[in-house]
Design a protein that fits this description.
The complex is a heterodimer of chains A (237) and B (212). Chain A is an alpha/beta fold and 237 residues long. Chain A has a single domain, classed as Glutaconate Coenzyme A-transferase. Chain A has six helices and twelve strands. In chain A, strands 1, 2, 3, 4, 5, 9, 10, 11 and 12 form a nine-stranded mixed β-sheet that branches. In chain A, helix 5 packs parallel to helix 6. With 212 residues, chain B is of the alpha/beta class. Chain B has a domain of 142 residues: 3-Layer(aba) Sandwich (Glutaconate Coenzyme A-transferase), CATH 3.40.1080.10. Chain B contains five helices and twelve strands. In chain B, the strands form two sheets. A nine-stranded mixed β-sheet of chain B has the order 4-3-2-1-5-8-10-11-12, with helices on both faces. Chain B has a three-stranded mixed β-sheet with strand order 7-6-9, with no helix packed on it. In chain B, helix 2 links the parallel strand 1 and strand 2. In chain B, helix 3 runs parallel beside helix 4. The chains are: A alpha/beta (237), B alpha/beta (212). At the A-B interface, helix 4, helix 5 and helix 6 of A face helix 3 and helix 4 of B.
């Protein structure tokens, strides 16, 4: 096995960033974002990027960083409502956006990573999403064809990983990360904890190491978008 | 006296049966969770990758890795499970979720739903709404009967871009409950909010529905 472990996010990305690249970036909202790898991608200076990510981060955080520096040419996302800079660039015609239904986006990435070039789904039939796409009937129901997605580089965030690239994800920080790990020609992962070989129970590996080319341990800020809490009964409010 | 937002949510909660797996949309549908009847055991799905959503955390339990689809911090329950987005939408698209309760801008008499974009305005995206209405067994809309200008939202045909075709089974508004059985059937007035008359509903509804 070649060495997959890198010391810094910058070193882990080195040699894989280029102008016009397609990047997948894991996360839902700000949860499960490869924060340090996004910063490394910004610092690489690569431009005209097509970014595939469920959301576009917020101003100054996540993919919002790459929007500020105008490194993103096009986004493929399901929802982008939390980012003012995104809105400004989009309304000014400086940024292209392709909206995908969230489940279609997830399945396109899964399919891409699994070597499936296209599939049929009923999601979006009869809506603008279906325009220009082939349709077909199965058992009397109508479906539209969607295509698989792959990326030059997938940036993934995991909880724990070992030097072989085996990964475990934490709670809802899993989201798009496992599929993106499969769909990257090169997949680079940042983990909260890099553990010794054998420390992860092989029964509970979420992403097997074959999908991972590079791995780096990095401290994440883990910003919270909406901090909602409740008060203990009897506690002073 | 038409229904308040909370009363609409309480009425929608009556559609949730014991043992159901349910997905509640953002906004008024979120309130439905507060009204689930005693003895009704329901598992809430959050499409970002969790079954068995728990309540908001206490301050010292907040975990950035644990949020719902509205990006709010939440907690887990003993029944909870986590999964990736493809598996989450396999549950949704594959018809494994019993009920979806969601908001709407417009609903048409044949059950079309529009709730994701207004041409000329900033479009934020459809998120998981198109998948939910395409795949969930039963889709219930909660919405005001008219828009802010007083124009009907329950229409012959949606004028806004669709989220899904022929996908809505029940519409709960501040004026009442409108339901249909099966995709070919007409919506029928099933209940009126207290003090609301059939005439008022007729006046504020464009859709051709049954008043019998």
């Amino acid at each position: 096995m070649g060495n997959k472990v890198f010391k810094t996010a910058k070193a882990a990305l080195d040699g894989f960033a280029f102008d016009g690249m397609t990047v997948m970036s894991g996360g839902f909202g700000l949860c499960g974002l490869p924060e340090n790898l996004i910063v490394a991608l910004r610092d690489s200076g690569a431009k005209d990027i097509t970014a595939i990510s469920n959301n576009a981060g917020v101003d100054g955080f996540g993919l919002g960083l790459l929007l500020e520096t105008r490194q993103i040419k096009k986004m493929i996302s399901s929802y982008v409502g939390e980012n003012d800079e995104f809105e400004r660039q989009y309304l000014a015609g400086e940024l292209e956006i392709e909206f995908n239904p969230q489940g279609t986006l997830a399945e396109r990435i899964r399919a891409g990573g699994a070597g499936i070039p296209g599939f049929y789904t009923k999601t979006g039939f009869g809506t603008v999403i279906a325009e220009g796409k082939p349709t077909r009937e199965f058992n009397g129901e109508s479906f539209i064809m969607e295509t698989g997605l792959v990326a030059d580089v997938a940036l993934v965030k995991a909880w724990r990983g070992d030097p072989y690239g085996n990964l475990q994800f934490s709670k809802t920080a899993r989201n798009f990360n496992p599929m993106m790990a499969m769909a990257g020609k090169v997949t680079i992962v940042e983990v909260d904890e890099l553990v010794e070989p054998g420390a992860l129970d092989a029964n509970f590996i979420h992403t097997p190491g074959i999908f991972v080319q590079r791995i780096v341990e990095a401290k994440c800020e883990k910003r919270i978008e909406q901090r909602t809490t409740r008060t203990r009964e009897g506690a002073p409010s | 006296m038409s229904w308040t937002r909370d009363e609409m949510a309480a009425r929608a909660a009556q559609e949730i049966e014991d043992g159901f797996y349910a997905n509640l949309g953002i906004g008024i549908p979120t309130l439905v969770a507060n009204h689930i009847g005693e003895g009704i055991d329901v598992t809430l799905q959050s499409e970002n990758g969790m079954l068995g959503m728990g309540p908001f955390p206490y301050e010292d339990e907040v975990d950035a890795d644990l949020i719902n689809a509205g990006k709010q911090t939440i907690t887990e329950l003993r029944r909870s499970s986590y999964f990736n987005s493809a598996d989450s939408f396999a549950m949704i698209r594959g018809g494994h979720i019993d009920i979806s309760i969601l908001g709407a801008m417009q609903v048409s008499e044949n059950g079309d739903l529009a709730n994701w974009m207004i041409p000329g305005k900033m479009v934020k995206g459809m998120g998981g709404a198109m998948d939910l209405v395409a795949g969930v067994k039963r889709c219930v809309v909660i919405m005001d009967h008219t828009n802010r200008a007083g124009a009907p939202k329950f229409l012959k045909k949606c004028t806004l871009p669709l989220t899904g075709q022929n996908c809505i089974d029940m519409v709960i508004t501040n004026l009442g409950v409108f339901a249909r059985e099966g995709e070919q059937r007409r919506f029928r007035v099933r209940e009126l909010a207290p003090g609301v008359t059939v005439d008022e509903v007729r006046e504020k509804t464009e859709a051709d529905i049954s008043y019998e």
